[in-house]
Amino acid sequence: MAFARERGASQRTGVMASIFDALTSLTRALGRALVPAVLIAATVAANAQQYPTRSIRVISPYPAGSASDTVTRVVLDQVSQMIGQPMVIETKPGAGGTVGFGFVARAEPDGYTLVTSSSSMATESVLHRTLPYDPVRDFVHIVLLGTSPNVLVASKASGFKTLADLVAAAKAKPGTLTFASAGIGSSSHMAAERFRLAAKIDVRHVPFREGGLLEVMAGRIDFYFIPLAAAATALKSDKLTILAVSSPNRVPLLPDVPSVTEAGYPGAVFRFWNGISAPAKTPPEAVQKLHDVTAKALADPALKEKLAKLGVEPSQMSVADFGKFFKDDLAATVDLAKEADIKPLD
Amino acid sequence: MLSTALTDLWYGFGVALEPHNIMWCLIGVFVGNMVGVLPGMGPLATISILLPLTFGIKPVGAILMLSGVFYGAQYGGAICSILLNLPCHPPHAVTCLDGFPLTKQGRGGAALGITVISSFVGASWGITEMIFLAPVLVTVALEFGPAEICSLMLLGLLAGSTLARGSPLKGVAMTIVGLLLGIVGTDLETGTPRFTFGIPNLFDGVELVALALGLFGIAEFMKSVNQYSDINTKYSNVGFRDLRPSREEFRRSIPAMFRGTLIGSLCALIPGTGPTIASFISYATEKKISKTPDKFGTGMVEGVACPEASTHSSVQGDFIPTMSLGIPGDAVMALILGALMIQGIVPGPQLISEHPDIFWGLVASFWIGNIILVILNVPMIGLWVKLLMIPYKYLYPAALFFVAIGVYSTNNDMFQVGETVIIGLVGYLLLLLDFHPAPVLLGFVLGPRFEENFRRAMLISRGDALVFIKHPISAVFVALCMILIVGQIYVRIRKPKSGIADVAAAAAEREHHHGSTDQKAPVAAE
Amino acid sequence: MFENLLRKKDFYASMVMTLLGVGVILNSTTYNLGSLMHMGPGMFPFLLGIVLTFVGLLIFGTALTTPYDETERILPESMEWRGWGCILAGPVMFIIFGEFFGMMPAIFSCVFVSALGDRTSTLKSSAILALGVTICGAALFSYVLQLPFPLFKWGR
């Protein structure tokens, strides 16, 4: 109908008028299209800002009570307060975490199902030939919560006072010293392997389900790379000597303990990391929002203190950087497995 | 030393009796008790849910509450075992053996009463031990290396395989089945998955709760469905006196309580042995010592008193290595430890000196908590017994649901509910063939520890099998094993029974256990 | 000795155990056996399999030697197919409905189906029982115990 009117008008005035009329009709058409477009854009933006609108489910593939599980609960408690929606933690342990990771890889990528990822994601991909997920392609790694090194403790009975003593003893009697771990693929195992390769010593691995530290205290096992969280206990024990920390620098919890780099073995650096990941196709706005809120939570001094007591050093890393960090960690773990001759279990 | 301990304890009571601390203790104990009644749902899940709550409250209150959940749950666990033959938690599986027959005789209330008393006695001893003997016992615990634990497990397996009534051969077979089920999962030392048939949910093994509830729960339901149980009629005219244990029953259970408590406290110290093992060992011991071993399984009060006492004393004693060494005995302790560390408290030898209010307040709260639990539970006995008045046909579907959700809630894994169903079916078939399920649980719990420690002992000693004899404690256990075997054979030969079966059985036992006398190759027994 | 063998419980008992033992032996050889001193993953189950087979054969021995007891029955007096089927189906319903539809349908279906196992139950009585347990169960496990199990959901 409008066109009829336009034509009627242009017939009266000539070329300039017709150009003017064309422009007018164009803008009107655009306007008619633009208004809904703006509205749609506004709605989309509004929805993105509104995320999350309901409770978020976070799968924790670690046994209840383990360090990773506790760290997750502590951080998410703060995040859920800041993000305004409950974050329900569902502990789904099994097969070193692969059950939980596989579950989330297949979950709806709507931003309401997340998983607490950790170094075990890399370790598991080395230990199993086939996995129900691809650690890089099936996930978007949102935010790194923090890292935690391991602490090398030796039994008092062994008489080692410094890391050098241990290395010397190991070189003098290859194959006699033993070290404990919390199981194949655990942080204590990996840290010890890195150290073994860096120091080029021949020591024997004795895995434990529990009670490994007790054996070291009793003097039956020579050393153990315990998680930093457990180190506070070791400090006060008169049956253990703390030899080194597997981080590049000293940690505030143990100011008198040298780092492995200081002791001359930079290749022994090992840090266990905890993070939050989501299925790969999760909308980027949700990812960014989660990242930003968590980053803010991690900057909170009270939370930092709690994490410090658990031995975790919080980090601030962008989504893209975390993605790269994950790939690097995976590659490093694959290399370690090759060098340490850790074969897949199945 | 004694006087200072007493003054500290007095101080502890002062801390624990502060109004807000009593409140936290009460909450913890109550929640724990209620959760303990539900099959499958354990203190672990509850404590992890309550964990964020503790961030905002003072450390004393936090640990009082969390510990209360832990030992409170043990009080509730015996109820279903006795009344419904359904063990809520694995340690209470043994209580079913004599508890349920007691219920069928109309003495269920009495059994519950004995349980509460035994629990209190066991817990009290555990607490006392914790106070006065902690440092000594910790030293003992450090002496238990892989060789010692291995021989102890062997002793437990030998003693416990004849746990249940019925043919000892079948008991042995069931123990082996339990051992095999325990092997399912990834091998600790090499990481190879064994008997998992490629199913990732089996990589961590069969879940203990699924096994216990399937064998004792589902199999039992299948046996009893449509068999109108006569429990209802016995309880329709129940008087108050029937709810209380008789003088005779009480008298007989006292020595059993003390023996159970002793065993439980020993098990608490030895790393790797928990309430489940404690209850099995004390039941087996009680049966062996008794003058009427054949009556066990038909409703002997001793069979109810001793496992409960040992469970509770071992649960209280579990706190010792956690508090004094900082090493948690199991996952629940690890969680409580984590909660403490978040608050900035580091458990260890210095805990007593640096945070006396926490340590002594905790110890005092154990007593207060246990007293509260007794006060809570005794009047409730009548209530629970009334539960039996509900016709079985309404009871078992509800119980089945509780079983399903209980198993699900341990690991949020539906696969394990499926495990329970399959185990239940197989368990029923075994029941039909006169195989009793209890030794399966024993083999399942002890077996992996036996194998793990055997291999570890070999690894550390570099293949020297004599290590089991060289270590004094281990040698004692091995000697006890020998005495047990010789005793069995002797009893068998002395009995005037003839028959190929018995001679064959004796020969078989000699064959089985021959391995452990062979110095070159201690064979996995049973 | 061999008469009535097939009627004796112990015959079947021994068969089960022997077959299981043999199966275990065969399966455990697929793992690295190692030596007795340095046991591989397969050694312990291998030994257990041997012992179990042996025990199974011994039980067979008792089946041969003990006289046949006339009153002995292997199968129970009444074959409760309906009861057994419903009891086993109950938790299976719980799994299926719980995975796809949430806690409340799971509870309802589990209790409803298993209640039907009793011969004197009616559809109505089972439904009422199921409803009652569902409401109480949901209140207990979801609100009080905060179990991370959604009450209702659709699909995985």
**Overall shape of chain B:** globular
Q: Percent helix among the residues of chain C?
A: 55-70%
Mean pLDDT of chain C: 87
Structural class assignment of chain B: mainly alpha
Put simply, the count of helices of chain C is: 5
- Report low-confidence residues of chain C grouped into runs of 5 or more: none
- Share of β-strand residues of chain B: under 5%
Order of helices and strands of chain B: HHHHHHHHEEHHHHHHHHHHHHHHH
Distance N terminus to C terminus of chain C?
Answer: 58 Å
Summary tags:
heterotrimer; B: 526 residues; mainly alpha; 23 helices; 73% helix; disordered C terminus; C: 156 residues; 2 domains; 63% helix
Describe the overall structure.
The complex is a heterotrimer of chains A (346), B (526) and C (156). Chain A is 48% helix and 18% strand. Chain A has 12 helices and 10 strands. Chain A has helices at 2-13, 15-50, 67-83, 98-105, 119-127, 163-172, 187-199, 212-217, 228-236, 284-299, 301-309, 319-340, and strands spanning 56-60, 87-91, 113-118, 139-155, 178-181, 204-207, 223-227, 240-245, 271-279, 313-314. In chain A, strands 1, 2, 3, 4, 5, 6, 7, 8, 9 and 10 form a 10-stranded mixed beta sheet that branches. In chain A, helix 3 (67-83) links the parallel strand 1 and strand 2 (87-91). Chain B has 2 domains: 2-143 and 229-408, no CATH class; 466-526, no CATH class. Chain B is built from 23 helices and 2 strands. Chain B has helices at residues 2-16, 19-37, 43-50, 59-84, 93-104, 108-142, 146-160, 168-183, 208-224, 231-236, 247-269, 275-289, 302-317, 319-325, 331-342, 351-354, 356-387, 392-411, 414-432, 438-460, 467-470, 472-494, 500-517, and strands at 185-186, 193-194. Chain B has a two-stranded antiparallel sheet. The radius of gyration of chain B is 23 Å and the shape is globular. Mean pLDDT of chain B is 80; it is low at 496-503 and 513-526. With 156 residues, chain C is an all-alpha fold. Chain C is flat, with a radius of gyration of 24 Å. Chain C folds into 2 domains: 5-65; 81-144, no CATH class. The termini of chain C are far apart. Chain C contains 5 helices and no strands. Classes of the chains: A alpha/beta (346), B mainly alpha (526), C mainly alpha (156). Chains in contact: A-B, A-C, B-C. The A-C interface holds A 57, 88-90, 106-108 and C 148, 156.
